[in-house]
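thread from #wetlab-drylab

HS: before we spend reagent money on co-crystallization trials with S-adenosylmethionine, can we at least see a predicted complex? here's what I'd submit
DV: go for it
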Amino acid sequence: MTDAFGRVIDYLRLSVTERCDLNCLYCGPGARCESGPAACCAAGELVSMAAACVALGVKKIRLTGGEPLLRRDILELIAALRALPGLEELSMTTNGQRLPELAAPLRAAGLDRLNVSLDSLRPGRYRALTRGGSPERVLKGLAAAEAAGFRDLRLNVVLLRGFNDDELAELAGLAREHPWSVRFIELMPIGAGAELDAFLPAEQVLRALPELRAWGQADAASVARLYSAPGWAGTVGLIAPVSRPFCAGCNRLRITADGRLKPCLHAPEEYSLRGLSGEALRAAILAAVAQKPARHRLAELGHSESARPMQRIGG
Ligand code: SAM
């Protein structure tokens, strides 16, 4: 699929639930996946939407939420998605709280890669930021993921001035010891994130760690600029949607847990795929791709134009 600006669209973020077991200060509590028209899709609906995207050229799918590990049928869903012909990679973003028990079953079901969110290593601070989570569970989950055979593990750290800016070296240091990519992400003004006065530019990480040097070559669709240092086992990534937007290389679509296709995270437009199949489903996806905007307007407006908060879209 190619959009109106010549971008090849081959990456789908598929949200599988709006529920979450954490309530991060900058994101908020999960929603309920209530009954009625806004109910979360059944696994079969998500698989048929994803299958139509894959048939149209999507090569990578990342499962997100809400917290995807809260979905009871997550293993069956993964197995069904992994069987889609043409899909090259199936990954997931998780808060890691349930990873110690689920890493091995996720791998066995066919999940290829994991991104794990971890904004602080300090138990009290992490608990305050997430309102209830434990960083020890995340670290235990990462160890379980490695033991289960997951490679190229990625950690997502949202940069939060006044919350974790004194911990950047410690968090990045995980990539000194482990073959992981620790990715620092700028806080986006969306949902509860728009209310929090905590923005910190990604460049701050380079000031905290002057030994870091540019590492490898980022491809056009890669959102992270990568860095490493001699003797480090892994890399540090900077993701700067606010100070250095990467819309020109954006290759993604999003489908929300209630079955709406969002061509751009920060645009208000959503296209319902619910109840569609065959040619109608295919046509709806192509029509939405044709409407993908050139770029978001976070910098000019200071806020997202998305009608939904992050936990109802999937990060
Ligand atoms: N529950 C899973 C998790 O915590 O990774 C997946 C969903 S969560 C919405 C996905 C990612 O979005 C997380 O890494 C989270 O930190 C990030 N996120 C949420 N709100 C954000 C915001 N306002 N700015 C930047 N990143 C945000």
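DV: The chain has one domain: 11-312.
HS: ok that's useful, forwarding to the group
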